[in-house]
Design a protein that fits this description.
341 residues; 9 strands; alpha/beta; globular
Length: 341
C-alpha cells in the first residue's frame, strides 16, 4: 500500500512539474536580451516612422521586455542604399524603407512600381500579404536580408506650382521631379512631361527656385515636407501605390532562436496592420490640411483612363527587365483579389 501510495504521489508531482514547465513563458527560457537598431529615412509624424515605434513597443511587450528595438530616423544611420549594405554585413539590424529601393538587389521588386497596378489598398494588402508577397520577400534571403512584411506610404499624386493638372494634356511640357529610377523617368516622359531626376532632400529647394515645376508625392509627404509653401495645386490621380518594407539583416535573424523569431514575426505582423491604419488616418488628415493651403482637384475617370492607356506599354517594357513571370503572377493575384468579395 505504501508503495502504491508513493507511486501515485510521484506521478502526481511529476504531472504538476510537467504542467508547470509547459506554463512557463518561452521568454523565460528561450528569449535572450536583444537590442536592435531600426534605420529609417523619415522622422516622427509619418505613418511608417510611427508604425515603427509601435513595432518597437510590441516587440518589447511580446518578449517580456527582453527584445528591444530603437528607431533611428532622418537617415541618422545613413542613406537607404548604405543601410542595405550595412544590414547585409550585419552592422545595422533592421530598417523600414521604400520597397522599390531593393530593385538593385532583386530586380523583381521593380514590378511594385507599375502604374495603376493596385486599384485600391485592400487589393494591395491581399496580394502583398499573400503567397505572391511571401515569395517576393523570400528572394531577399540570398541577398542577406529577411523581409518582415510590407507596409504603406500611400498613393502618388501630382502637384504643381505652375498650373492645375486637370487632364493628361496639362502634364505636357512641365518639368516634373522624379525619383532616380528608369520607370519613374519613362512614366513622366510618356505623358509629355520633362522628367528631372532628383534626390528627395533636394526637392523643396528645386520647387522653390522653379528648377522643377512639380512632381508626384503622397499627400502625407506633401504636408510633412511643407511642399504646400512652394506649390499651388494638387491633383488626385493615385497613379502608383507605394509599399514600404520592414527588413532585418539575415546575419542578425539567423542568430535568433525559434521563439525569438516567432515573437519578431508576431510583432511585425501586428505593427504592419497598425501602420496601415495609421497611413489611412494620416492621409485623410493630410488631404484636409492641404485643402486649406492648396487647390485640390480630382482627375476625372476618363482622363485617368487616358493615363493608363498612354503608360500601359511601360508595363510590357519593364516586365521584361524586372521578371515576366513575377509580373504575370502579380497581375493574376491582383485579378483574383479584385474579384473576391
Amino acid at each position: 500500500m505504501k508503495l502504491d501510495h508513493f507511486r501515485k504521489r510521484f506521478t502526481s508531482l511529476l504531472s504538476v512539474a510537467l504542467l508547470s514547465a509547459l506554463a512557463l513563458p518561452a521568454a523565460a527560457a528561450e528569449i535572450q536580451d536583444r537590442n536592435f537598431k531600426v534605420a529609417i529615412a523619415v522622422n516622427a509624424g509619418t505613418a511608417h516612422y510611427d508604425g515603427g515605434v509601435k513595432f518597437c513597443e510590441l516587440l518589447d511587450k511580446k518578449s517580456g521586455g527582453k527584445m528591444k528595438a530603437k528607431m533611428y530616423g532622418g537617415g541618422a544611420l545613413g542613406k537607404d542604399t548604405a543601410v542595405v549594405s550595412s544590414m547585409q554585413g550585419g552592422i545595422i539590424d533592421m530598417a523600414i524603407m521604400n520597397a522599390n529601393l531593393l530593385t538593385g538587389l532583386v530586380k523583381d521588386y521593380g514590378v511594385l512600381d507599375f502604374p495603376f497596378a493596385f486599384a485600391n489598398e485592400k487589393i494591395a494588402y491581399k496580394v502583398l500579404d499573400g503567397e505572391w508577397g511571401t515569395n517576393l520577400s523570400n528572394k531577399l534571403q540570398d541577398k542577406g536580408l529577411v523581409g518582415l512584411g510590407f507596409w504603406e506610404m500611400g498613393y502618388l499624386n501630382y502637384h504643381s506650382g505652375k498650373k492645375p493638372i486637370n487632364k493628361v494634356e496639362d502634364i505636357a511640357g512641365l518639368k516634373m521631379r522624379v525619383t532616380e529610377t528608369p520607370l519613374q523617368i519613362d512614366f513622366q516622359n510618356v505623358l509629355g512631361a520633362n522628367a528631372v531626376p532628383l534626390p528627395f532632400v533636394e526637392v523643396y529647394t528645386a520647387l522653390e527656385q522653379h528648377t522643377v515645376d512639380g512632381g508626384n508625392q503622397t499627400l502625407i509627404n506633401l504636408e510633412k515636407s511643407k511642399f504646400y509653401e512652394v506649390q499651388k495645386f494638387v491633383t488626385i490621380t493615385n497613379h502608383m501605390y507605394n509599399p514600404q518594407i520592414l527588413l532585418i539583416s539575415k546575419k542578425v535573424y539567423d542568430r535568433l532562436s525559434a521563439d525569438e523569431k516567432k515573437v519578431l514575426g508576431e510583432a511585425a505582423a501586428e505593427a504592419r496592420d497598425y501602420q496601415r491604419q495609421l497611413s489611412q488616418k494620416y492621409g485623410a488628415e493630410a488631404l484636409a490640411f492641404l485643402k486649406t493651403k492648396m487647390t485640390v482637384s480630382v482627375m476625372p475617370p476618363e482622363e485617368i483612363a487616358k493615363m493608363k492607356e498612354k503608360t500601359k506599354p511601360l508595363i510590357d517594357k519593364y516586365s521584361k527587365q524586372y521578371g515576366e513571370q513575377t509580373a504575370r503572377e502579380m497581375f493574376a493575384e491582383i485579378d483574383k483579389a479584385s474579384k473576391a468579395r
